[in-house]
Amino acid sequence: MYLVHAHFRAHVPLAVPSVQFAELVLAQVRASGGVEHASAHFPLPHALVIGFWLSAGTLREAETRTRNLCERALETVGELSGWTLLRAEAPLLAPTALGRLGLPESTEPGHDDESPE
């Protein structure tokens, strides 16, 4: 199971509002099958990120399938004509247990979290 983020941008000011756009893309993609879960995020006005959870043999396959599904939605749903798919890729995430950057956090120099106090 892979998480792939599809990043979209409105290229005309009168494009379908982000919430409606997300609903149209999600309906089209879900009808195609293969997507376990999808959710939309709105980082900026006229920008949209849809996260797709899907099963695939490899990360490359998951990213390619997501890109193909989104491009097909943009081609077949007329209301989406004012939008462009910028990229479809797995997000890079640091393990939360290891801190913001994936590194152990320590407030004291030389402090070892595993040693007794």
Provide an overview of this structure.
Helices cover 28% and strands 26% of the residues. By secondary structure, it is α+β, with helices and mostly antiparallel strands.
Short characterization:
With 117 residues, the chain is of the alpha+beta class. The chain contains two helices and four strands.
Low-confidence stretches: 113-117
Helix content: 25-40%
Q: Structural class of the helices, strands and pairings?
A: alpha+beta
Average pLDDT, rounded to a whole number, is 77
Shape: globular
Radius of gyration: 19 Å
Strand order of the largest sheet: 2-3-1-4
Proportion of beta-strand residues = 25-35%
**Helical element count?**
2
Distance between the termini: 41 Å
Give a count of the beta strands, DSSP E runs of length 2 or more: 4
Sketch the major β-sheet. Answer: 4 strands, antiparallel
User: Helix and strand succession?
Assistant: EHEEHE
Feature tags:
117 residues, alpha+beta, 2 helices, 4 strands
SSE inventory with pairings:
Blueprint: E1 2-10, H1 18-32, E2 35-41, E3 47-54, H2 59-76, E4 83-89
Antiparallel strand pairs: 1-3, 1-4, 2-3
Helix pairs in contact: 1-2
